[in-house]
Amino acid sequence: MILEGKAWIFGDNIDTDAIIAARYLSTYDQAELASHLMEDIRPGFFEQAGSGDIIVAGNNFGCGSSREHAPLAIKGAGISCVIAVSFARIFYRNAINIGLPILECQDDLYRTLQEQDLLRVDLDRGLIQEIESGNEHQAAPFPPFMQEIIRLGGLVEYVQKRLRETG
Amino acid sequence: MSSGQTMVEKILAAKAGKDKVVPGELVNIRVDLALGNDITAPVAIKVFEKFNLERVFDPEMIVLVPDHFTPNKDIASAGQVKLLRDFARKYNIPHYFEVGRMGVEHALLPEQGLIRPGMVIIGADSHTCTYGAIGAFATGVGSTDLAVAMAVGEAWFKVPSTLRFEYEGRLQEWVSGKDLILYTIGKIGVEGARYRAMEFAGPVIDSLSMDGRLTMANMAIEAGGKCGYMQPDQITFDYLKNRVNKDYTPVYSDSDAIYEKVYTYDVSDLEPQIAFPPSPDNVKPVSKAAGVKLDQVVIGSCTNGRIEDLRVAAEVIKGKRVHPSVRLLVIPATQLIYRQALEEGLLSAFIDAEAAVSTPTCGPCLGGHMGILAAGEKALATTNRNFVGRMGHPESEVYLSGPAVAAASAVAGEIVHPKEVM
Ligand code: SF4
What we know:
CATH class of the largest domain in chain B: Alpha Beta
Oligomer: heterodimer
Structural class of chain A: alpha/beta
Shape of chain A: globular
CATH superfamily of the largest domain in chain B: Aconitase, domain 3
Bound molecules: iron/sulfur cluster
Number of domains of chain B: 2
Largest sheet of chain B: 5 strands, parallel
């Protein structure tokens, strides 16, 4: 799958309270959650970010709570993919489980890219390309088990398939 | 090739039906207990419905605790809790804890005897790692994971490598498990243990109370850890006696287990520790925090709302008064702790000091309700996170400490060492 979008740059340790504040957790409506995405650290982000855009961040993205509302809010806002140097582990598994593409890339893209630079991402190959300059960056590939989950669209679909197979 | 295994590797291998697992390996395993709360379980229930199943995999292995926005803070949260309650009824789930019987989940489950050494526990709450203090493998997951466990009783994991932390020396007066874990997070940083298991050991841990151990394991996630644990010992077995009526087999790390890294800390001179905003790894000794003026102090949460915490806080505050410009909130973590605090006279000590004592709830810990901060306000809390906006307005600030410093600082109106008010 090929994704293209504008890059929005965030720093290190973007925590789940920053992604979606606890005061909005009395709903699990994806559109409602999305409208408060990154509200406390970047007011107005939801209005700025367009469909297909890409979040680019530093280390430990999504640290903090287990709230699946965080990747749900990101997906709900139309963000097509998150690229970070590293992800916190619960966020990582939640993103895989709900089918939000995420890429771990050691290159410090969050330091070198400019806000709104255009990116092209080849998910299958884990390849990130800066459209303007043509510079390429390789992200860590997923193990086959996770590729299968992502290919099927998430853990629910993966388990549904298994339930069907085992009757 | 003789190489031993850590406790976590052994537990995961056993549940995966293997002799041995190695770090990095992906395993799909049977889980023993799956937990959800009023924030995460509604999402899980919605996902569970997609499976179109007539029954859950095992009603006994599901635990539902409405603790975050309860007693229901508004109409929306009332609706979320109702979802849990209805789901528990529909699928005959015995471990649903209603207001009046409940407590903050991670204080409640061990207290109720639901946690045993050697178990695998997943919870759709990041502080599920707390149960490692009882020699279990326990880790936070998301709502979809919870839904899948409710449906098929399984979860996928990558076997973590293990970091071992050895604490040597003797703790000073007023220094507790909270200070040890804050110190550790300060040393290794919020991603110092990312994806890894944290094994806590050494003479200081051997003599640490179960409440202190639960506090430490609770905050493994603040260092990015997948789990944090102590190996079971006599203190564990004494704690489990009269709580647990099922058999269990303790699991221990081999003496030749392979650790990714071993950290050794001599903590004889350790002062009480404070995490400055806006991150739990921004840790300094209390002497470096002197003079920070406070608007609110919160004693409670799954980190430090247990009976030992309330005893220490009451000892400090007894016969004194909360500073006129400070609001002190005391929140016993479970109904049982609340009752025990009442019987021991701790609640009177707090109320006489003009603290507000609340029924168990997560409440202010996550900025939910019951003590939200206004712009510019500063709080000191015995909770576990101090991110931007965690307790209210994005321009408010949260400092973290153990219960002794929190109680003393409530009296002083600013952050102080407990000895300053004794
Ligand atoms: S007390 Fe705080 S950290 Fe613990 S479960 Fe509740 S909200 Fe989470």
